[in-house]
Amino acid sequence: MSKLSILIISREIFPQLSPRAFRTTELAKELARQGHTVTLYAVLGKYDYSDFEKETGISVQNIGKMLFATNNSDGKSRYSLIDKILFHALHRLIEFPDIELMFRIHGIIKKERKKNLLITIAFPHTIHWGAALAKKTIPKNKYPDIWISDCGDPYMGDPINKKKYSHFKYIEKYWGRKTDYITIPLTEGKKGYYKEFYPKIRVIPQGFDFDTVKLVNFFIENKIPTFAYAGSVYPGNRDPKEFCNFLSTLNQDFKFVVYTNNPDYYSPFKLVLKHKLEIYPYITRVQLLFELSKMDFLVNLTNPDTIQLPSKIIDYLLTKRPIMEVSIAFPQHEKKVFLQFLDRNYNKRLTGYNVEEFDIKNVAQKFISLYYENKQ
After folding, report:
1. Is the bond into 263 cis (omega within 30 degrees of 0)?
2. What is the Cα Rg of the chain in Å?
3. Model confidence at 255: pLDDT above 90
4. pLDDT digits (tens, 9 = 90+) for 11-38
5. How many CB atoms lie within 10 A of CB 369?
6. Which of 205, 248, 271, 327 has the fewest other C-beta atoms within 10 Å?
7. Is the pLDDT of residue 153 over 90?
8. How far apart, in whole angstroms, are the C-alpha atoms of residue 306 and residue 191?
9. E-assigned strands of the chain?
């Protein structure tokens, strides 16, 4: 296979700590390692990427300073009173403030001229919409040969954020007709998309550089049962309320460690659980995997649907620690299993995943294979 010229557009990249930033960065790095010429656009903020460019060979370019869509890759954002007012007034109607990104994409694709492969990465989906509009106005011989739209979550079919105005259906269908492929991380995720676009959907999971994974050399069982959850909480969806309520009723000693970007959610439980609950902010993935590898077991909060796979489940698999799945309702049978875990009986641990499919080398190759699949 010949080496390709690849343009990747995402809102966030390293050092931002988010699933999309991680996916974008790891994919770009591996594509460059495999010898392809990679140009990577994101909202950069004030982070200096000169060392990153030297180390990876990737050309990192700034989408630009946003007037309203202020989330960026250096982790800093603005949310003033005016921002709040505009968000609540316009977010549902026009996807404000992320709609601003849509109008930046045309200039990027036009500037970069003819690339072999374009990969746009959502969230937000407005990046896809911008590429769709650009495909209408930029001559075919100047638009990338193949365009892949990578989606962590669906848009109209998102089971967590269901309140979408019907006019967005036409925008999503317009994008679906324009893109060559839609890549999703989980087979069941197809349910979140319109059936007419099923032939364009390909499953490519989250990718990890296994060479960077560092775990404890020798796992030693903790003196008291110690378990962890790392990831987002969505009240009413991916929600540990019932689980934490159950923990609050237990008399035995244990330690529950959470890594979260929403510590306030856990504050009421901290008052009850006290030393049994330890709350930490997000840390880098390399650090997180090392810390999680010290746990007796890990808790995976499941979504109430089957079309989304929390990216943290892949982190968990890499730690080689037992995993217990906990649903939002946390029914009686799950309570019994959890008590077995506390007794260090892990017979009901999560199984059925092939870790090798998450190797970034394999993931990157799947993107390249789509280019040649379409060219044939």
Report:
1. no
2. 22
3. yes
4. 999 999 888 999 999 999 999 999 999 9
5. 13
6. 271
7. no
8. 9
9. 5-10, 37-42, 59-62, 117-122, 146-151, 181-184, 201-203, 226-230, 255-259, 277-280, 297-301, 323-326
